[in-house]
Write a structure and sequence with these properties.
Order of helices and strands: HHHHHH
Largest sheet: none
Structural class: mainly alpha
Low-confidence stretches: none
Strand content: under 5%
Distance between the termini: 29 Å
Number of helices: 6
Mean pLDDT: 77
Helix content: 55-70%
Shape: elongated
Length: 182
């Protein structure tokens, strides 16, 4: 099969429009060693699916699914699956994910801590806390701009790893969404 035919079958596969025979063709293709670099992610997906498909399906899966679906609308939580030894313990989870203002508040707290440290450091080295360090308003404005630049640079250095991690999470979500459709 040509790469174009494989890509066409893959697009049909991700849309859920392939037949079992077409899926077997794709699985056989991705078991080969000479898969092009651009299809390596798809190869990994098909190899994982092959591992999952080798597992045996429980015989009472239909009853379990039916029981689960029937219990979805009920307010009282009943066990859907047969009783299994469950671990006793309490798991605490957030009811809602952290909002953006938590991040903003954390950033403001960090900036205030940095500013307080700078202020404390400056006060410990001055002999008279009420003396003017600048002789003109222009000089004071220049010093203020320098301090602002220092704080901005420090906060950017603190936020860069967070930004990078966020971008990596977004990239991972895109890869997962590419391979999994609900």
């Amino acid at each position: 099969m040509t790469i174009e035919q494989i890509k066409s079958l893959l697009s049909h596969f991700y849309e859920g429009q392939t037949t079992p025979d077409e899926e077997r063709l794709l699985a056989a293709y991705f078991r080969r060693e000479d898969v092009p670099e651009e299809l390596q992610e798809d190869k990994q997906l098909f190899l994982m699916l092959a591992q999952i498909s080798d597992q045996e399906m429980p015989t009472d899966i239909a009853e379990q699914i039916t029981a689960f679906v029937n219990n979805l609308g009920q307010t009282e939580k009943k066990p859907v699956l047969p009783e299994v030894k469950q671990r006793k313990g309490i798991i605490y989870r957030l009811k809602t994910p952290p909002k953006m203002w938590y991040r903003v508040a954390a950033t403001v707290a960090i900036l205030l801590a940095i500013g307080g440290g700078v202020l404390f450091h400056q006060q410990t080295y001055t002999t008279d806390p009420f003396c003017d360090t600048c002789s003109t308003p222009e000089e004071a404005a220049a010093e203020l701009h320098k301090a602002n630049a220092m704080i901005t640079k420090a906060s950017q250095q603190c936020l860069a790893p967070t930004r990078n991690a966020f971008e990596q999470v977004e990239d991972t979500k895109e890869i997962i969404n590419k391979h999994i459709t609900f």
